[in-house]
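re: that chain from earlier
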Amino acid sequence: MISDEEIKNDNEGQSVPIPIDRIPALDTSDNIPLYVSVYEVLNELIEKGEIHPCQSIPSELELSHHWDVSKGTVRRALRLLVEDGKMIKSQGKNTQAAPSNMTGKEGIQFIVDVCDQYCLRKIDAITMEYEYTGASVYTADLLDTKRGELLLLAHLSYYAQGECVAYSQRFVPTQLMSTYNVDANDPDAIQDFVLSVVTQEAKLTSSSIFVISADEELPIDGKADILLFDEVYCTQQGMPIAIVKSYLRSDSYHLTLQRRQ
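^ sequence. v structure.
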C-alpha cells in the first residue's frame, strides 16, 4: 500500500493538479491494455475541458495509487499522451495538458518510409515483430473505425552498421489485410504489406513531428533525443488506412521540409 506521505513527497513542489477525486475509474470491460485505459481517461478529461490547457495532473505515484496500477503503466500512458501532443512534460514538474495554441500538423512532401529514406547512414537491416490488438478510442477515431476493432500492430526496428537507429509502430486495420489477401500468420507477407503495400496505397497524410527524450523502453541504441514522426496514412479519397509512428535517433536523421508563402 502506498502511503499518503509518499504521495505528498512525490508531489511536493508541483503546480496544483486537477483534484484526484475528479478523475474517473478505469474502464476495464473490454480487452484493452491498462495503459490504454489510463490514456483514454486522461484524454477524455482533456477533450471535455475538465483538465484545462497547461493544468497539471497528479503525480505518477498518486495516479497509480488511485487506479491501483503500477507506476510503469501510468508512465507509459503519459508518454503516449505527450507523443500525441495532448500533454507536455517539463523537468521538475508534473505532466500538464498541452497549451491550446499547440502548433498544427505539418508534413514532408513525399510519402516514404522516413526510417529508411532519411537516415544519414545506410539502413542495412530491418527486423519486425507483430501482434494483433483492439483499437483504443484514439486509434479508432484516427482510423475511422470502432473501439476494440482488431488491428495489426507491427513493430519495426531499423539498423545501420549494427546499431538500432529507428523504430516504427504501424497500426493497420485487419480488414485492409483481407482486401490484399495477406496471410495473417506469415511474417514475410506482413512485413512486405506494411512496408510496401500500405505506403504505396497512401496518397495523403496527416503528419506531426515531435522531439522527445531518449527512452529506455524504445529499442533504439544511444542516448540522443528522439524525433517522433507521427502520421496517419490516407487514400486519395481521404480514407485512413494506417497510423505510422516513426521514432528516429536525432543524430542519425535529417528531414527536409519545403514551405511556401
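Residues 123 and 160 are 5 Å apart (CA to CA).
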